[in-house]
């Protein structure tokens, strides 16, 4: 669930993290092909995201990671393709 700062503050006693200085969350999704990974990454890059590092190949999985500054409490998204 995405909340406004006001709603979030009413639901937690902890302060909202400054995501320009700290990572608050990582979000990962699995997809069925490397082409889908690349399409998702291109869409993210086209809206102002930037790739944190080059693609990583773990043998059983390839990973690309993008950072998108969209005002969420977390901002780093990793896409994994376990079948690639």
Structural class: alpha+beta
Give, in spatial order, the strands making up the sheet with the most strands: 1-4-3-2
- Helix % is 10-25%
Cα radius of gyration in angstroms: 15 Å
Q: Tell me the CATH superfamily.
A: 2,3-Dihydroxybiphenyl 1,2-Dioxygenase, domain 1
Number of domains: 1
Task: Give the class-level CATH name.
Answer: Alpha Beta
Average pLDDT rating: 76
Distance between the termini: 30 Å
User: What is the string of helix and strand elements?
Assistant: HEHEEE
Number of helices: 2
CATH topology: 2,3-Dihydroxybiphenyl 1,2-Dioxygenase, domain 1
CATH architecture: Roll
- Extract low-pLDDT stretches: 72-77
Q: What is the number of strand segments? A: 4
**C-alpha geometry:** elongated
State which percent range the strand residues make up.
25-35%
Helix and strand layout, with pairings?
Blueprint: H1 5-11, E1 26-30, H2 34-46, E2 50-57, E3 62-67, E4 76-81
Question: What's this entry about, in short?
Answer:
Helix content is 24%, strand content 30%. It has 84 residues and is α+β, with helices and mostly antiparallel strands.
What key phrases describe this protein's structure?
single chain, 84 residues, alpha+beta, 2,3-Dihydroxybiphenyl 1,2-Dioxygenase, domain 1, 2 helices, elongated
Describe the structure.
It is a single chain. The chain has a single domain, classed as 2,3-Dihydroxybiphenyl 1,2-Dioxygenase, domain 1. Helix content is 24%, strand content 30%. It has two helices and four strands; from the N terminus they run αβαβββ. It has helices spanning 5-11, 34-46, and strands at 26-30, 50-57, 62-67, 76-81. The chain has a four-stranded mixed beta sheet, covered by helices on one side.
């Amino acid at each position: 669930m995405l909340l406004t700062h006001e709603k979030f503050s009413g639901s937690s006693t902890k302060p909202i993290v400054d995501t320009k200085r700290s990572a608050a969350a990582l979000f990962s999704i699995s997809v069925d092909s490397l082409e889908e990974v690349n399409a998702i990454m291109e869409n993210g890059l086209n809206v102002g995201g930037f790739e944190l590092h080059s693609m990583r190949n773990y043998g059983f999985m390839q990973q690309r990671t993008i950072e998108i500054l969209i005002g969420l409490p977390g901002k780093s998204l990793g896409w994994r393709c376990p079948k690639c």
